Amino acid sequence: MIQTVTVTVNPSLDRTLRLDALWPGGLHRVRQARADAAGKGINVARACTRLGEPAVALGILAGNAGRALADILRRDGVTGEFEWVDGETRTNLKLVEPDGRTTEINEQGPTVPEAAQRRLQERLETWLPKVKAVVVAGSLPPGVPPSFYGELVSQAREAGAFVILDADGEALRAGLRHQPDLVKPNREEAERLLGRGLGSARDAVEVARTIRAEGAARVLVSLGAAGCAFSGPDKEGWIDALRVSHLESTTGAGDTLVAGLVAGWLRGLSLPEAARLGVAAASSAVGREGVARPDPHQTASWVSQVQVHQA
Q: What is this structure's pTM?
């Protein structure tokens, strides 16, 4: 049964190209190529589905790239419902070297008129009586103001859903004013929001606390290989990252973490325990090909290895 809906205003068709090495200005021959349906909310929906908590992905698509994205998502077994606009859904390039280092080149996306934004809100409204969690995530394309995320957060909260916001810049700032249940900035997004740098995971606990004071009920700051820090109404602390012996792709790791948070919340877990599940899922995903594709059995076996430290 679908209990989660994700909203992705600016999806992407992600093309991952594997190279022997990356030399700026040089000629490169691709060893392997693949395409994935992507964008933060779509990644979360896929990872949730793989973790046993099916989600529906709402969004806005355009052109041939949009049709390719929708076809891939169907093959992934994820329900998608989209509004269509003129132009082309963006194609993002991920250039992966043998050591796992990834260079990303992201397009801007098509202009989304206000009418399409309202249709998307209406589509969300039809799902709100049926679901328990809503994830609003990703960048904003041309034509969509930062305030739109605040509108979506309010719309979902008024319906009684648990709302997770994963955004950047002014969209994150605008969404915080509407008191989402959880926000998950990464290190760079948190630094931009607060205008200062972050140190260790232990130091990031105070940063998570500061962001929570801006309006979110719970905050988790993801720090990549350094783990993550969390702050909630009754518990604060940090979580160590798992050591992964083999990296295939780090793209979508943060979105897989969000999927673990959603799955944990749906299963009645506390914020630290849901974050443990998210870290295990993200660790599983980075060792597999594609974007945000955790292995559910591996995730379950790794959860006990994730160390939580209370502040």
A: 0.94
